[in-house]
Structures are given as structure tokens and as C-alpha cells.
Amino acid sequence: MQALRLARPRASLRPFARSIAASASGTHATASPASSASSSVIPLSNVEAQWEQLSHDEQLTVHQQLEELQKKDWKTLSIDEKKAAYYVAFGPHGPRAPVNPPGTTMKVLLGTLAGVAAAGAVFIAVRSFAPPPPKSISKEWEEASNERALEQKMNPISGISSEGYSGTGFVTHK
Asked: Where do transmembrane segments lie in this chain (predicted)?
């Protein structure tokens, strides 16, 4: 019942302000908003299907009806009343309404695929207009760089000219 009270939308104060203003001006309202709302009974069977079509006042009336029903023993409630209470408290409406309408997943998937395809097309276009790689990026050039480093005794402590060196040196191609 606490969850139902928390989930219940608050009634606006305008109807009460109007009734107060009407009584202050000298005209008396025949019925208060609370008594007129409780006089119309909305059937609780299949509340899930009718909830979106109900006005805010009718939804408030359903909340009040369910609060009164839940004050009784839960064993005496019908299945429809229990379903209505659960739907009103925890149903997919208000803050728990789905954020994305159905079909959004397919749109996001197709949009992502289109973005990846466009990026691939741009990559291929840029690569087709690019100049050839420089001649220094070849296995032969790197092996020649290793020989030159050995001739010059480059990095004799831990590098290519050190004793027992077993690394590949400047060669990065396989």
C-alpha cells in the first residue's frame, strides 16, 4: 500500500482553489471535487487497457478506489482488483513508461551500420589517393639499418652492438 501511495499522482490544487474562491465570493459549490470524484465508479477489470485513455481525474479516482479496497483483507480481493492495484502501482506508465518506442532498436542498428559503412568508404577513398609508402619502410632497408648500426657500434651497452644481443634490431617486418 505504501508503494501505491508513492506511485499515486498528486491532484492539482486548481479545483480546490476554485472551490475556495467560489465559497469566498458568496456562491457555494454543490459538491466538492473529492465527493464528485468518488461518486463515479470506474470498473477495475482490465485497467491496463483503459489506463491511457482515462483522464487525470479518472486515474485519481481509480487510485482512491484501490486505496479503499486495499484497506480490506487482501484475501477477499478479487483477481481483477489485485491486478489493477499492481498495475497502478508498478505498471509501465508515468515515470516507468518505456523511453524508446518499439522499432527504435532497428533504427539504431541501421544507423550504426550506415555510419560504419560511411567511415569505411572514407577510409578507402583516402587510401586510394594516398602516395605510395616511402622506400625506408621495407625489410631490406631495415636490415641495412641493422648492418649500419653494427658498423657504427650503436648502443654498445644494451642495444644492437652489445654482447649476446638477440633482438631483431630495427627490423619490424616479418
From this structure: 108-130
Q: How many domains does the chain have?
A: 1
Name the residue range of residue 52's domain: 2-96
Give Cα 155 distance to the centre of its chain: 57
Residue 167, domain member (yes or no): no
Tens digits of per-residue pLDDT, 127-161?
A: 999 999 888 888 999 999 999 999 998 988 888 88
pLDDT over 90, % of the chain: 24
Burial 76-104 (b: 16+ CB within 10 A, else e): ebeeebebbbebbbebebeeeeeeeeeee
> At 1, is the secondary structure helix, strand, or coil?
coil
Q: Is residue 170 part of a domain?
A: no
